[in-house]
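Follow-up to my post from last week.
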Amino acid sequence: MADRQALILEAAVRVIARSGIRGLRVEDLAAEAGVSTALIYYHFKDRAGLVQRTLAFINDRAVGYTEEALQGAQDARDALLRLLLSELQETGAVRENSVAWGELRASAVFDDSLRGNLVGSTRDWVRDTAELVADAQAAGLADLRVEPLDVAERLTALVEGLSGRWLSGSLDVERARELLAGAVEAELGPRR
Amino acid sequence: MADRQALILEAAVRVIARSGIRGLRVEDLAAEAGVSTALIYYHFKDRAGLVQRTLAFINDRAVGYTEEALQGAQDARDALLRLLLSELQETGAVRENSVAWGELRASAVFDDSLRGNLVGSTRDWVRDTAELVADAQAAGLADLRVEPLDVAERLTALVEGLSGRWLSGSLDVERARELLAGAVEAELGPRR
DNA sequence: GTCTATAGGAAGATAGAC
DNA sequence: GTCTATCTTCCTATAGAC
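User reply:
Got it. Predicted complex:
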């Protein structure tokens, strides 16, 4: 069984998914994890440290289902679509991650200390996406006139927009996935 | 000069733009507005009522610059672009509104009582956008094969995604506007 | 309508025993 | 390492005077 710290971090993800980063109460987390508040302070120093560590934990976990999503892709264009769709799934872990990610971005508007992490992760994601766009072009599966970085930046930003609507109850996940697939078609042009 | 309530509401917008909905402290607002906390409770009953009224106030104000953006549009396609770009401007009021809107969406993930307002406003915005897409098609300025509602839903969601990146410091406003213009081109196809 | 003063209740953080 | 108990700070909300 995992150690106490890991148990607390897993509980923290659940609490953040339920109440948000700013709604995270150390006492709630203690109850969720079945430990005392003092233990949390012992392991994580203070609330800010706890949040920091939880965000890093979430990021690591995301790598898992992202790579999983790429398994079995037919070609580069298919891989691109799968990568993007992997953020829009009604799965426990994905939803938790999406909520946390959205909260992180929303919180970073008011809290500089959260921006570093965020900007870096965003850039990585955009870069990976742009590479798949370029691969698709090289394989003759996408319009050669489009700029991979522009397309990647738009598609990933669209995922974030759709995700926000999904999680805030304006859009169901199936419709979001459909819209995203349509955007990929519009951006890359017909398969040649 | 406006009455006290309006002064408080204007101050509340500034405080929300600076600290977020969940970061709004009645005491901060009192200082910003130059009144006592008691007066705020006198006029708005409680914190929730204050937030509610402020959000409505922000919505009303947004109608102003939205309509302004449509002035001088050359044609339906141009009007569509202007409508969308009006959310991405480095102007005091627009930035304040964008921050508040993003916060509202982010908060609604955890607070059901905020969803009603949000879902309705989103639907209206998407509908107005879809109408402009249909107008552009009728005027021969957009590909007739695209579904106006799908395009509108994607473009408005993209605006929200770009706006989130802009406000959280991942993207500057000029780049965001450029990317958005590119998306309109990709979605509507070349002018015919 | 508006203020000063303060009650009352969360929530973060720590002391000290085990 | 982990807990119980508690300190302290911050924040919403109200009482009561003007």
